[in-house]
Amino acid sequence: MADFRPIVGNILLGLLIFGMSSTVEFGHFKEQVKNFRAIATGCFLQFIVLPFLGFIVVKIANFEYYMGITLLIITSSPGGAYSNWFCSIFNADLALSVTMTAISTILSVAFLPFNVYVYSKATYSSEVLSSLDWTSLGISLAVVVVAIAAGLVVSLKCSNSERGAKIRDIANKFGNLAGLGLILFTSLAPEGGRITLDGREPIFYYGTIMPIALGLVCSIIISTLARLKKPERVTVAVECVYQNTGIAMTSCLALFPDKDEQLQALGVPFWYTGMQTVFVGCFCLVSWKAGWTKAPADTWNIFKVLLTSYEVAKNHDDENKQIESNEDNFTDTKATQRTETKGIVHANQSQVTPKDEETEAQDEETWRDNEEIETATNIAGNDDWFSDFLKVTKVKK
Fold first, then answer.
1. How confident is the chain (397 residues) per 10-residue block, as mean pLDDT?
2. Cα 223 from chain centroid (whole Å)
3. In the prediction, which pLDDT does 221 show?
4. GO cellular component terms (predicted)?
């Protein structure tokens, strides 16, 4: 009988990734394109630092290959969509978070298989790696690539219409349901029994969460050295360690043929998922009280902080200040224009009035002279020589 579990797992994984990538806002790329330093720092932490930390932890903890490879897949995966939710409610840089999630989803097409291959080869022997079903892992990665591409096409085509926004919203909801279904399915699907997290070796518990703790520390150090703004530091740290564990869950169902190994391996993404939520939540709380978020650190009303978007409030205040500034500038400009206009009119009047009075006097004198000439001409019998004589005499005067 054919094993249907990897097929169902890949279908749910494809829907999850499709729903996440279909929500990519291409407008955020235009808004954040000038923020190259923050984006470059986030990508460096996501695809260089965290996979390397996963490799170091696997080597030091000496994990069995089925647990170690699963952890390498997790640390090489793109960021989880719920990182945006954490950045939103704790008032980090949400626009940067959304952009980073979109970029990490796209870049994971190349970096995910590359990092898994390189660090697996560097950690385990060829005999161990040759015993694994890499074809099934390749199928899961192909599902991820196709789902990302399809989601990005839908997002691009539906980004500028109301109907498109509804389609993307529906795709996102299906993606969230698929993610929940994937968690439930992988927890119940293994033939070795239900996944349990109790009764394991201590190395499992603290070894699995070490990439999270080390990732947060490295993110703060590197983002501080990069001179990012404090809310940006919080965002890149969250994006670095909050991973999409659904890829690792599906890979476990297909990659490890032994059922006991599969059951042990599935405990890694389940434990990582719970612990990354705890670590990121505590980190955001500490960042808020340290004044690293956009929420005021001097308040203890955590419910107000979680329910208020201070980024939106700040933008609204900035818009009001800009409007008031524009109104003041407009008023000052109009007053200046009126003052300048009055000055020009006064100057023109002072220059034009004397000239007008002189012209009127000359016109009046000319009119009187013409009257005298006309009267004398009539008396002389309209003789032309007498009229000319009077004109010449007047000119000489």
1. 66 79 65 80 95 96 91 88 78 81 81 90 84 74 80 76 75 76 67 70 92 96 95 93 84 79 88 91 92 84 74 48 54 60 55 53 62 54 50 48
2. 17
3. 97
4. membrane
Name the token pair of 33: 């394109």
pLDDT attached to residue 334: 56
Q: How many CB atoms lie within 10 A of CB 195?
A: 21
Residue 393 has which token pair? 């005499």
Amino acid at 265: A
Q: Among candidates 244, 346, 299, which has minimal Cα distance to 12?
A: 244
Report in angstroms the alpha-carbon separations of 226 from 28, 36, 37, 61: 22, 11, 7, 31
Q: What is the pLDDT of residue 118?
A: 92
Of 151, 150, 293, 276, which is closest to residue 234 (Cα–Cα)?
A: 293
Token duo for residue 116: 């898994």
Please report how many Cα atoms fall inside a 13 Å half-sphere around the Cα of residue 151, on the Cβ side: 28
Rounded distance, CA 186 to CA 81, Å? Answer: 19
Handedness of CA 349, 352, 358, 361 (dihedral sign): negative
CB 53 within 8 A of CB 219: no
Q: Which residues contact 202 (CB under 8 A, 6 or more apart)?
A: none
Cβ(328)–Cβ(344) below 8 Å:
no
CB 250 within 8 A of CB 240: no
